[in-house]
Every structure is written in C-alpha cells, then in structure tokens.
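To the structural biology subgroup,

Please find below the input and predicted structure for Abi-like protein, which we are adding to the shared reference set this quarter. The sequence is reproduced verbatim from the submission form. If anyone notices a discrepancy with their own records, reply to this email rather than editing the shared folder directly, so we keep one authoritative version.
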Amino acid sequence: MELAEIKKGLSTEKLETYRQVFSCKSDHELIAIYMSMQSIMSHFFTVVQLLEVTLRNSIHQCATEQFDDPEWFKTKTISDKSKNQVAQAEQQCLDEVGAKYTTNDLVSRLPFGFWVHMLSKDYNNSRDREHNLWQFKFNQCFPNAKASKVSLNTIFQNFGTLNKFRNRLFHHEPAWKGRSTRSREQAINNIIKKYQEHLEVIRYLSSSKYQLITALGFEDRFLSECDIANLKTFEDILLPSETQND
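Predicted structure (tokenized):
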C-alpha cells in the first residue's frame, strides 16, 4: 500500500501531533500509531451513546414529573444558550419531520450540552421554586450518587469534562492527548482514565446499564486493545515488505 497516498487523505496538522507526541521516526510508524489510536477511540462510541441517552431520558422524565409538563424545556430553561438550543431543535423537527413532530422528536434533537447544563446550580436553587428541580429529583435521576457521596456539583463538573471530551471525539480531534502527554504509555493511560470516568457516571445513573457494559465484555475488549503491544502489531503490519524480509 502507498503510505504517501494515505497521508494525503489525513489532516497534516493532526498527523504532526501524532508524530511529535509519539516520536514517530517513519511514515509507516506514524500511520500505524494513528490507526491504532483510532481503533482504540472507536470503543468510546458505545459508552458515550449510552451515557447521552440515559442522561437525556432520566432528566426528561424527572423534569416532566417535577414541573408537571412534558414540554417543560419550553418554559423552564434559564440560559439564553439553552433557549436557543430548544429553538434550533424545534426548527430541526420542522425541517426533518414536519409540523406534526412529537415531543420525543424534539427531545431527541436537543444536544448533549443542553442536558449537561440542566445539572447546573440554576436548577438547584430552593429560592427559585419555578426552576428548582434537583432538590426534589436528584436521588431519582442519580440513584447511586448518594452512596458514593457524590454531589450534584461534582456530577455537573464531571459531565462538563466528558462533554468536552465527547466534542473532541466526534470532531476527530486527538482526544487521547492531555497537557503533559509525551509518550504512548501516557496517551493510553489518559484514554483508560476517560473510559473509567464514563463508566462511573453511567453507574451514578443506572447500575443496570453499568453492568450491561461490563457483562457484555465492552470494557474487557477496550482494555485488551489498550495493551501497548497492540501498537507494535500495527507497526509490524505496515512495515515495508523488504524490511520484513531482512
């Protein structure tokens, strides 16, 4: 295969990040590292999707009950950004479904950031009875948080961090990279930590969904691919044929 042709279809800037961080000395090593990291990162899509859907549905159910309104998001959102996100979701529904769209159509189109913001202190203010959600519904939405002595503010911070990671992941940025990442081992450790953080917040929301990920082997397969030896396997496959025959 022509590695030069493969490089043409990839971002030069992103590849340079891989070359510098992982000290790649050749193109075959660079492409091998890039593809192995892409393969590892693909394991996140399952946990991210499960986390997003669970958070969305849990908050929507709690807010619907607390505010006695299945379309609470049209009247209870506080920030201008959240209001704009609702308006954008409504327009999406009109464009994609038509005037007879349902509440579920709209809820499913609200971005992850909208639901993360719903965890902010704006909705945990006992003096603001109109918007106070979490004084009444925190334990219902996060049934395992209390046993772990985790506060709403901590969960809000956790989800804010994971939302930034999610955006980097979905925009194909090097989400494995931290401020001090200088080696393959550090990159792998960063990725494992992020995966565990996703599992932890899923557990706060639902023990059953946490168990689903582990019981079906998703976590084991992820950890298996994070083995640093797999990076060497990718390199060996892409070695020039004349080098392999030496």
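Summary notes: The first helix runs from residue 3 to 8. The chain has a mean pLDDT of 91.

Regards,
Lab coordination
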